[in-house]
Amino acid sequence: MDPPSKVEEKSKPKRNTKGGWRPALILLANQGLATLAFFGVGVNLVLFLIRVLGQENATAANNVSIWTGTVYLCSLVAAFLSDSYWGRYLTCAVFQVIFVLGLVFLSLSSWLILLKPSGCGDGKLICQRPSSMGTGLFYTAIYMVAFGYGGHQPTIATFGADQFTDPDSISAFFCYFYFALNVGSLISNTLLVYYEDTGEWTLGFWVATASAVLALIAFLKGYSSYRYLKPSGNPLSRIAQVFVAAAKKWNAELKNGEALYEVEGTESAIKGSRKIMHTDEFEFLDKAAILTEKDTPAQPSPWRLCSVTQIEEAKCVLRMLPIWLCTIAYSVIFSQMASLFVEQGDVMNRTIGNFHIPAASMSAFDIGAVLLCTGIYRHILVPVAGKLSGNPKGLTELQRMGVGLIIGLIAMIAAGVTEIFRLKRVVPGERASHMSVFWQIPQYFLVGASEVFMYVGQLDFFNGQAPDGLKSFGSSLCMASISLGNFVSSMLVNMVMGITAKHNNPGWIPEDLNSGHMDRFYFLIAGLTAIDFVIYLVCAKWYKCINLGDGSISISIGTRTTNSSSDDEEQQFKGTAKEDLV
User: What are phi and psi of 276, to 5 degrees?
Assistant: First the structure.
């Protein structure tokens, strides 16, 4: 059997003989199993830190936000390796092995060192203070899990999209990809969370490990059926070359009748990438493609002369960045489910008869909302909106992301209102409010509904708008948004506590939540999201979609896809596409 790198080198002549829905289903199964494993650790991590490691509420919430942020920040590392050198298959395999090893170390450290006495960590039996070695092993393990899963996520999404050549199948794959993610989450948020909440942490971690092992085996078994695309080389150097070449030719001007430099033929100078048509934005970068007396087109220096496609690749990244930055505020909303939502539910009435509901299990309503709304969107909203708008996708990706921001904002208002009423039902001297935990359902459901619009839209948008040589980078932007959202959430918690906990005041998020005002923190996030939405509208209106050299002007956000051979038709569509983005 050839190594993955050789398979990818040989892939070009056979690129249409492999792929399709059969290998895509293997990747969807891999995603579901890997997600089950990851959330088997992540969804209840805040309670593990509080009950087993003895951390305070605000500290635990911050540590979970930082850890979750690290998970998705690692996606940028994997995207670089995937796009540049390793290819999608090898990158997925390596990071899944790291993921499995991290889960094994986590299970062993919890079982043999941290959970002493046996059965502790159930909220009743207090665990012994962990040793420095035990704490160090624990953090090493969970950050291996973060590195492995974070690297796996964007690469498996892009690898799945590689199995198709038509935009409709790619869009459908991303919907099912997020569906599979949430099926895995549903199992971990119900079964595994229940056992962990009752003190069976080791059992939960070992089940997560077994699921990750099955995911890895399934992925490797599909080796012969995948469609492989070659990596395109280091994108960082290509983008740097554009800026350096433009700076060197800062005073150069394009003479009348001269054209910007582009390689001849149908293929671009970037290995495995289609040509990208020239656009007028960021015109200062076009200087890198101006031929001067010092340039030799036959053997050009990449630090002096760049092709139009290479320049447009850099422009694509610059155009996507403002949209990406606007999604970070939504990720702050999303991060609350793994931290403050769980802490809020932990001080509410969580009993039905003799049954005790784990606070983290309430995220099952978020997952249920995702599963329900995915079906409604694909089978009801898309056909109806498609007939009304003329766009076969129903809503453009930018429109979907805008809708997700609004629904997420409403979710924060709902969480704040729930907290106000929870505080009113607190009895002095009792830890938990008499208000039922099921009053959290609206906020969880709204976050789930917003995910269908925001995160599926992000995957489709960034993958579709990224140049061929940056597809994994495009998918990783979605994950990096979640990462920065968690870091921003941690920063907000620190700032709020630093401001509100002065002069012997407990602050908004104290150890005893009954003496705090977590509702104000939720309303603060809602206010910041409203400001972000206004900025997002401006950025979305400004955005201009990628125009590929094969004639397809947009596979992600235009109202239609065109393969026009007529310059007049192309110019006409250019004039209307931008108006239909939002």
Answer: -115, 130
CA dist 104 and 208 (Å) reads: 9
What would the two tokens of residue 27 be?
């990747």
Q: CA quadruple 470, 476, 481, 487: dihedral positive or negative?
A: negative
Cα dist. 148→95, 449, 483, 522 in Å? 5, 28, 14, 31
Peptide bond into 392 cis (omega under 30): no
pLDDT tens, the chain, 582 aa long: 444 444 444 434 344 568 889 999 999 999 999 999 998 888 778 888 888 888 887 788 778 878 877 887 788 888 888 888 898 999 999 999 999 999 999 999 888 888 888 778 776 778 888 888 888 899 999 999 999 998 898 889 889 988 988 877 888 888 888 889 888 988 887 788 777 777 788 888 999 999 999 999 999 999 889 998 888 888 888 999 999 999 999 888 887 767 888 887 777 777 767 888 888 888 899 999 898 888 777 777 888 898 899 999 999 999 999 999 999 999 999 988 878 898 899 899 998 888 888 887 888 899 889 889 888 888 888 788 778 777 777 788 899 999 999 999 999 999 999 999 999 999 888 888 899 999 999 999 999 999 989 988 888 898 888 888 888 888 888 888 888 888 898 889 989 999 998 888 889 988 888 988 999 999 999 999 999 999 999 999 999 888 876 544 443 333 333 333 334 433 333 333 333 333
Name which of 232, 285, 243 is nearest 261 in CA terms: 285
Could you give the 3-state DSSP secondary structure of residue 224?
A: helix
Q: Is 542 left (phi over 0), alpha (psi -120 to 50) or beta?
A: alpha
Pairwise CA distance, residues 576 & 546, whole Å: 14
Alpha helix stretches (DSSP H) within 188-282? 193-197, 201-221, 235-248
Instruction: State how far the Cα of 497 lies from the Cα of 491, in Å rounded to an integer.
Output: 10
Q: Which residues contact 185 (CB under 8 A, 6 or more apart)?
A: 35, 36, 39, 43, 363, 367
Token digits of residue 101: 């090893």
Which amino acid, 395? Answer: L
DSSP secondary structure, 230-249, as one string: -----HHHHHHHHHHHHHHT
User: What is the spatial distance between Cα 352 and Cα 276, in angstroms, rounded to a whole number?
Assistant: 60
Looking at this protein, which amino acid is placed at residue 428? P
Q: Is the pTM of this model over 0.70?
A: yes
**132-141: long-range contacts, CB 8 A cutoff, minimum separation 24:** 134/109, 135/53, 137/105, 137/109, 137/113, 138/53, 138/106, 138/109, 138/110, 138/113, 138/114, 140/105, 141/102, 141/103, 141/105, 141/106, 141/109
Sequence-distant (6+) residues with CB within 8 A of 501 are 507, 510
- Count other Cβ atoms within 10 Å, centred on residue 531: 10
Distances (CA, A) of 152 to 156, 177, 212: 6, 13, 11
